User: Which sequence fits this backbone?
């Protein structure tokens, strides 16, 4: 029971810190260098999540990709290149990955 309470407490604290930054900080008052750096947070986090999921959390250098993963990555790369949008790249990757996964 103590471990579950500690986990819930850590989750709540993490959530409050994230929400606090987003809701309490006025982005317009941040220095230009900070605003420029914040533009790269989304792509960096997305890349970290993708690499971790491709390595299956094992952290090995040899990645074993399925056809659905390769097609999803290609769809994301092409969409990001054409639109410049992280959101559309994620939608393309998830859609193509799911579609290929269902077909195969």
Assistant:
């Amino acid at each position: 029971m103590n471990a579950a309470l500690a986990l819930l407490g850590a989750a709540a604290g993490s959530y409050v810190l994230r929400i606090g930054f987003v809701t309490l900080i006025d982005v317009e008052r941040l220095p230009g260098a900070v605003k420029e750096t914040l533009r790269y947070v989304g792509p960096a986090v997305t890349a970290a999540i993708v690499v971790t999921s491709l390595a299956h959390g094992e952290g090995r250098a040899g990645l074993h990709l399925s056809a659905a993963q390769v097609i999803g990555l290609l769809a994301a790369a092409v969409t990001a290149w054409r639109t410049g949008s992280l959101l559309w790249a994620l939608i393309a990757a998830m859609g193509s990955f799911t579609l290929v996964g269902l077909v195969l």
Observations:
- The chain has a mean pLDDT of 84.
- The CA atoms of residues 46 and 60 lie 19 Å apart.
- The chain is about 75% helix and 0% strand.
- The radius of gyration is 18 Å.
